[in-house]
Amino acid sequence: MWVRSMRVPSIRVIESAGEMAQVCRTAGRTLGLVPTMGALHEGHLSLVRPARAENKTLVVSIFVNPAQFGNPQDLAGYPRDLERDLELLKNEDADLVFTPGLSQIYPPGFDTWIDVGALGDKLEGAHRPGHFRGVATVVAKLFNIVGPDLACFGQKDGQQS
Ligand code: PAF
Q1: In 48, 55, 131, 149, which residue has its Cα 20 to 30 A from 73's Cα atom?
Q2: Which residues contact 108 (CB under 8 A, 6 or more apart)?
Q3: Please, which residues have CB within 8 angstroms of residue 129's CB and are 6 or more apart in sequence?
Q4: Is 127 part of any domain?
Q5: Which residue from 140, 141, 137, 149 is spatially nearest to 24, judged by alpha carbons?
Q6: Do the domain assignments include residue 2?
Q7: Can you tell me the distance from the alpha carbon of 51 to that of 152, in angstroms, rounded to the nearest whole number?
Q8: Assigned domain for 157 exists
Q9: What is the tally of structural domains in the chain?
């Protein structure tokens, strides 16, 4: 299997979960994580900035998580602009950007999920069955890979906690 990582000035972009875990294990602490699905905007940057200020190492993940989309059309239409995202994160002085492909998060045969029970039927979950199962699962995967000391989520994600 090819493991690819590319460098843009001052940030390191890693696609492999194994490489990411290895790099994070030896990274300076504290380590902050901002999980995102990319298409970054000012709302994301308002999380990135304090995370940058409060941590020695700042990791931003960019992964459009199919498991939290009910409608395949919504997933297909989700905006993606990695080049622009990386430019923004370079300007915010992020250290590491994790951009896993699908198989890095959900390898073939993956079938272990975090089921949030009745909580998952409330708020957004009332309209999007399985949404919070997908969010909880991907966040747990990201936490396991990155091992952050601190993670920053947006206010809209309050309903996910
Ligand atoms: O809110 C989001 O952008 C996503 O739900 C998250 C937390 C990155 C998980 O995919």
Answers
A1: 48
A2: none
A3: 70, 121
A4: yes
A5: 149
A6: no
A7: 7
A8: no
A9: 1
Domain CATH number, residue 105: 3.40.50.620
Residue 41, pLDDT score: 97
User: Does 41 participate in catalysis according to the annotation?
Assistant: no
Tokens 């998060």 — which residue? 105
Query: What's the 111 CA to ligand 1 centre distance in angstroms?
Result: 20
What digits encode the pLDDT tens for the residues 37-63? Answer: 999 999 999 999 999 999 999 999 999
- State how far the Cα of 161 lies from the Cα of 22, in Å rounded to an integer: 27
3-class secondary structure per residue, 91-133: HCCCCEEECCCHHHHCCCCCCCCCCCHHHHHCCHHHHCCCHHH
Residue 3 maps to a domain: no
Q: Kindly tell me if the per-residue pLDDT of 107 is higher than 80.
A: yes
Q: CB neighbours of 27 closer than 8 A, spacing ≥ 6?
A: 56, 57, 59, 95, 96
Mean pLDDT in residue range 108-128: 95
pTM above 0.85, yes or no: yes
Using the mean position of ligand 1's atoms as its centre, give its distance from the Cα of residue 146 in Å. 15
Pocket, ligand 1, Cβ cutoff 6 A: 35-37, 65, 68, 135, 138-139, 157
Q: How far apart are CA 29 and CA 54, in angstroms?
A: 10
pLDDT in tens, 140-151: 999 999 999 999
